[in-house]
Design brief:
By secondary structure, the chain is of the alpha/beta class. It is 25% helix and 27% strand. Strands 3-2-4-5-6 form a five-stranded parallel β-sheet. It has a three-stranded antiparallel β-sheet with strand order 1-8-7. The protein starts with a strand and ends in an 8-residue tail after the last strand.
């Protein structure tokens, strides 16, 4: 096992999700009351999207539909990895066409994951708008892609990656800092 340092505990993670919910509500549930859906990116964007949907519903009474998006086959490093990626289920229970979509992910780093997600989602249709909600923005983007909604801004040394965990699938709600193993890069 590798050594990890906790940066956000349960209370801090909940506060960050609440900030995300407030920002999403401010954008979509204000005077215009536009419908929108949440689309969690596998792996940790999926439980985050479910939690975010519950908080949005508590705040404005609108329960957005929630889907899951697998981007494994859209990644730009697919041929460079030593093993094939685990393919997860993509489940989009709403029409993507002309819909307002909020992509949800745990950690925003290089922007490569989001670039892949944009490619994947447009294979399912043409949304009216796509917004990005992330729990943590570490401000290390390699692409002209940036979150629209952010729970926490965090500066982390380049030789560390961030790992988010959410109950009930993981032991606790937390964000950890872990030193990179070998020459791997975070997406």
């Amino acid at each position: 096992m590798f050594e990890r340092e906790i940066l956000l505990d349960h209370a801090a993670v909940n506060a960050a999700i609440a900030r995300l919910a407030d920002e999403v509500v401010g954008e979509f549930c204000g005077c215009c009351k536009e419908k929108f859906a949440l689309l969690g990116i596998h792996r940790q964007g999926v439980p985050l999207a479910s939690r975010l949907a519950r908080m949005v519903a508590e705040r404005c009474g609108y329960a957005p539909e929630v889907g899951m998006l697998d981007i494994s086959m859209y990644r730009d490093d697919i041929g460079m990895r030593k093993t094939l990626p685990k393919i997860n289920v993509t489940d989009i229970p709403f029409d993507v066409n002309d819909n307002n979509i909020v992509l949800v992910d745990d950690i925003f780093s290089s922007g490569r994951t989001i670039r892949a997600a944009l490619d994947a989602i447009t294979d399912y249709g043409r949304p009216r708008t796509i917004r990005l909600a992330v729990l943590v923005d570490r401000h290390a983007s390699e692409f002209p892609i940036h979150p629209d909604f952010t729970g926490v801004d965090m500066s982390v040394p380049e030789d560390f990656k961030l790992i988010a965990e959410f109950t009930p699938d993981d032991a606790a709600d937390a964000v950890y800092q872990v030193r990179w193993q070998s020459d791997k890069k975070q997406g």
